[in-house]
Each structure stands twice: as structure tokens, then as C-alpha cells.
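Let us work through a complete example step by step.
Step 1: write down the sequence.
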Amino acid sequence: MVAWTDFERATIQDIFGKIEYDVVGPAALSRCLIVYPWTQRYFGNFGNLYNAAAITGNPMVAKHGTTILNGLERAVKDMDNIKTTYAELSVLHSEKLHVDPDNFKLLADCLTIVVAAKFGQAFTGEVQAAFQKFLAVVVSSLGRQYH
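Step 2: predict the structure and record it as C-alpha cells.
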């Protein structure tokens, strides 16, 4: 179990209360697919992902990016049970979709960049540390089935 400080809990809830899921999610997933093109192999049914413009304009990428953020909201609502919250999703990504678990970390990094850009100077080192701790727990939980 992860020990969360009051500051960390409040920070995570504040971030997710302020971001627009349908903007930040698609931006983070698009960034991941552009910067790490090998991650595109898991989205073969999404159609044209041949260049940055195609990726950022792809409605399926946008929809899945929003889905990812909605999935993260589940962890925000139950920060003390993130591993349990993502148990089924871990099995899905491991056994059915065969997603390389390192890609969760890449997406988390892209999400951090997008959120930092949205928050600007309010995304202090302390805020970033709390956010990245949260994402590290999520990444670990999603990768749990792989171990």
C-alpha cells in the first residue's frame, strides 16, 4: 500500500478537477504516438497514424485519450486501492492486448508534459512530484499482471 500525504491527495484531486479530459487525454496519447512511434503498433485499427497531423486529427486517438483519463479518474477516487482498481485492466493489457508494460511509463511521461504545459508555473516541483508518484503507482498497478 502506498502512503499518501494530505498534500499529495489534495494535489492529485486538484489536478484532475481542473483538467479537461477531452483535451488533455488526446494530447497526451497523441504525443506518445508521435514521440514513440513504436507504440502505434497497438492501435492498428485506428486508421491513419502516418504522421503527426494524422495522429492529432484522428478521432479514435482522441476518444481513447479521453478514455484513458476517465480510467485514471477511477484511481483518483480510490487512491488507497489503485492496484485492486486496475487488476482487470492489467489482465486485459497483458493477456489479451499484449501491450509492452514500458509503454505505460511512456504515456505517463507524456501526460506529465501535457499537464505541466496546461498548468504552467502552478506546476511546481512539489506538484510534479505528487503527480508523478500517482502515475508511478498507476503504471505499477497496470504492469502487475506481467510479473
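Step 3: interpret the result. The chain has a mean pLDDT of 89.
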